[in-house]
């Protein structure tokens, strides 16, 4: 399993990529492997607020339904609408095509509490 070094990772198996003032969010390869084949993705709408540690959407797989937990508090500025018709992208490309949302963070200091790739790898190995 590869963990891109340029991402930050949240304990609920979500990654964050900084893009200027925007923060792109998706699930990790580890999470999609645990879920199995993803068949449905539910995401918030543009303009919605999300709260750190609170659900912002869900993924349904052939095994289970799993909530997506927000790594940061902020406002959704973009949603990956492709996932509505192609949820399998979550399994095929978790770090590229299957990003979930882009937010503007209310408090960027929350980024300091996220894991580096090495720290996340240690966390999932426990």
Could you characterize the architecture of this molecule?
There is one protein chain. With 126 residues, the chain is an alpha+beta fold. Helices cover 19% and strands 36% of the residues. The protein has 4 helices and 9 strands; from the N terminus they run βββαβββββααβα. It has a 6-stranded antiparallel beta sheet with strand order 1-2-3-9-8-5. It has a 3-stranded antiparallel beta sheet with strand order 4-6-7. It is globular.
Brief summary:
Helix content is 19%, strand content 36%.
Question: Which oligomerization state do the chains in this entry correspond to?
Answer: single chain
Radius of gyration computed on alpha carbons: 13 Å
Biggest sheet: strand arrangement? 1-2-3-9-8-5
In what range is the share of β-strand residues? 35-45%
- The shape is globular
The number of helical elements comes to 4
Tell me the span between the first and last alpha carbons: 16 Å
Please tell me the overall pLDDT. 96
**Content-based structural category:** alpha+beta
Taken in chain order, the helices and strands follow as EEEHEEEEEHHEH
* Residues in helices, as a percent range: 10-25%
Structure summary, number of beta strands: 9
Which features does this protein show?
126 residues; alpha+beta; six-stranded antiparallel beta sheet; three-stranded antiparallel beta sheet; 4 helices; globular
Task: Outline the fold blueprint.
Elements: E1 8-10, E2 14-19, E3 22-27, H1 29-35, E4 38-42, E5 49-50, E6 55-61, E7 65-69, E8 74-79, H2 82-85, H3 89-92, E9 101-105, H4 117-125
Antiparallel strand pairs: 1-2, 2-3, 3-9, 4-6, 5-8, 6-7, 8-9
């Amino acid at each position: 399993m590869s963990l891109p070094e340029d991402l930050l990772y949240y304990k609920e198996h979500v990654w964050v990529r900084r893009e200027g003032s925007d923060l792109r969010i998706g699930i990790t390869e580890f999470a999609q492997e645990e879920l199995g084949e993803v068949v449905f993705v539910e995401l918030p709408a543009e303009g919605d607020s999300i709260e750190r540690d609170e659900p912002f959407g869900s993924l349904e797989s052939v095994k289970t339904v799993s909530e997506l937990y927000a790594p940061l508090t902020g406002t959704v500025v973009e949603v990956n609408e492709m996932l509505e018709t192609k949820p399998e992208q979550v399994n095929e490309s978790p770090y590229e095509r299957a990003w979930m949302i882009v937010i503007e963070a209310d408090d960027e200091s929350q980024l300091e509490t996220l894991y580096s790739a090495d720290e996340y790898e240690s966390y999932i190995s426990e």
